[in-house]
Amino acid sequence: MFLYLLSKFFSFIVETRNFLFDTKIFSIVRANSPIISIGNVSFGGTGKTPFTILLARLLLERNIKPAILSRGYKRKGKKNQIVEKNKNAFSWEQIGDEMYLTLQKLDVPLVISPKKYKAIPFINKLENCDVILIDDGFQHRKLHRDLDIVLIDKETLNKPYLFPKGILREPLKNLERADFILLEDSVDEQNKQHLAQFSERILKYRKVIKDFYNSNNEKVNPQELANEKIVLVSAIGRNENFRQSLEKLFPEIVIHFKFRDHHHYSTSDVEKIIEQIKRLNIHYVVITEKDYVKLKTFQKKFIENGIELVVAVLELEVEKIELILNAVEKILKNYAKPK
To answer: Which of 283, 288, 301, 333 is deepest in the core (most CB within 10 A)?
Structure first.
């Protein structure tokens, strides 16, 4: 009952805020380039950043130049920052683990701002920016957007109640604002009924571990580790999903060290992990790319203790993604810059 009442109070706040934007009582900021928002309606990792990276790559293939706007969650400092590959050096602590990973994978401008709308004057001055991608933008109503893409995974629909009774950030009915809904293909038929009214906007997606590599950036064949005892370490939004995706490849997963999303690993954390691994005489630790961004600092310590870090590369596959790309091209063709 208590959680229900808290959820009702949270719902009141969320819906009041949305009403104030819908009725234009709260002002909205426009940019000089179209804005594509990538977001979700739940707390946790639905795959927003991997999809943002995928979409940026595909746009570049069509000669459309994106910039990516993010708050740089859990970074140190609150300044607005523009990060461009080979032009300035930033650590993951300064721009956040997800944006640092994005920087490794893409050669596009990254704009980091705690208040995304305040970054628009900086973005307007960027050269060669055709479109702005907002990583985690669905609830950022202060910014006008030209296309809203929302990712829904199976956990979102397993308990479709507002926080704290469930994990929803806002009611599912608010998906009416979305132009495209990406639905994880593992969602069961019963839970799909929650989105029946939006069926024409739904595209399926899946999270796929494409490759593995070691600390020397060499590819690792997972079959060579199939008979080895394995330890997992992860600090992501859906830690349990990471384990489930690896259980078929690695039947001998002995321990899974789980931390909260965006956790900053300390020396103490690493020493405790190594101590337990050595006690069990295990030599391989499988981690996510996002975790490697932070654990790379301790790479020497792992090597000294005979432990190999193996990085799993997760990517998204989206059915009919060309529909999104065509929509972006159409927006660009008809876009009139605000005066």
So the answer is: 288
* pTM reported for the whole predicted model: 0.92
Domain that includes residue 321, residue range: 2-207+317-334
Contacts of 240 (CB under 8 A, 6+ apart): 258
State whether 184 and 232 are in the same domain. Answer: no
The mean predicted confidence, pLDDT, of the chain is 92
Q: Is residue 339 part of a domain?
A: no
Contact call for residues 53 and 148 (beta carbons, < 8 A): no
Contacts of 59 (CB under 8 A, 6+ apart): 65, 66, 130, 131, 325, 328
Over residues 162-175, mean pLDDT: 91
Give the list of residues 6+ apart from residue 51 with CB closer than 8 angstroms, or none.
Answer: 38, 149, 151, 182, 205, 316, 318
Give the CATH number, domain containing residue 159: 3.40.50.300
Burial, 82: exposed, middle or buried (Cβ in 10 Å; 0-12, 13-18, 19+)?
middle
Mean pLDDT, residues 290-307 = 95
Based on the fold, state whether residues 134 and 224 are members of the same structural domain: no
Provide the domain count of the chain: 2
> Which H helix or E strand runs over 10?
helix 2-22
Q: Which of 138, 109, 137 is nearest to 124 (CA)?
A: 109
The CATH number given to whatever domain includes residue 256 is 3.40.50
157 and 276 both lie in a single domain: no
- Phi (first) and psi of residue 61, to 5 degrees: -65, -25
Whether 2 shows a pLDDT value over 90: the answer reads no
Residues 6+ apart with CB under 8 A from 30: 120, 144, 338
What is residue 339's predicted lDDT score, i.e. its pLDDT? Answer: 58
Q: Which three-class secondary structure string do you get for 325-339? A: HHHHHHHHHHCCCCC
Do 173 and 226 fall into the same domain?
A: no
Of all residues in the chain, the percent with pLDDT exceeding 70 is 99
pLDDT band (50, 70, 90) for residue 250: very high
Residues 190 and 216 both lie in one domain:
no
